[in-house]
Each structure stands twice: as structure tokens, then as C-alpha cells.
Design brief:
Largest sheet: 3 strands, antiparallel
Structural class: alpha+beta
Number of domains: 1
Strand order of the largest sheet: 1-3-2
Oligomer: single chain
CATH superfamily: Winged helix-like DNA-binding domain superfamily/Winged helix DNA-binding domain
CATH architecture: Orthogonal Bundle
Radius of gyration: 12 Å
Shape: globular
CATH class: Mainly Alpha
Order of helices and strands: HEHHEE
Strand content: 15-25%
Length: 69
């Protein structure tokens, strides 16, 4: 696990709600692609859960949320 992974996981553990990729990137002050890569690794390792927005009120793709397990 690298420093980006550790930072992303720390932010998710300290959050009281699931966060989007953009919210995590802003809190971590990381590029969105760096954040995404860290999230992919953390999901693969079973440390983070990925969930989709269940009720959309607007058009477009549903938001994807991440939370520490």
C-alpha cells in the first residue's frame, strides 16, 4: 500500500458518510486519477466498498460512492 492509498483510506475511515471520488480527491489534495487508482487498489484488497447512487433525480450516470469497510 502506497502513501496515496493510505491517505485515501484514512479519509474514508474518518468520514461519517460514503464519499464520491471527487470529494475524496479534494479532501486528499490528490489528482482525480491518482485517487481513482488508489480506490481501485483498496476495493481490490477488500478495504473499501463501492456503491452506486440508488435514487437519481437528474439525468446522467449515477454517482458512485466509496466507504471504508
Amino acid at each position: 500500500m502506497n502513501k496515496s492509498d493510505e491517505l485515501v483510506l484514512k479519509i474514508l475511515k474518518e468520514s461519517n458518510k460514503p464519499l464520491t471520488r471527487m470529494e475524496i480527491a479534494e479532501k486528499a489534495n490528490l489528482a482525480i486519477t491518482t485517487t481513482y487508482d488508489a480506490l481501485v487498489r483498496l476495493v481490490r484488497e477488500g478495504l473499501v466498498r463501492r456503491t452506486k447512487e440508488t435514487q437519481r433525480k437528474t439525468r446522467g450516470r449515477p454517482k458512485i460512492y466509496f466507504e471504508a469497510i
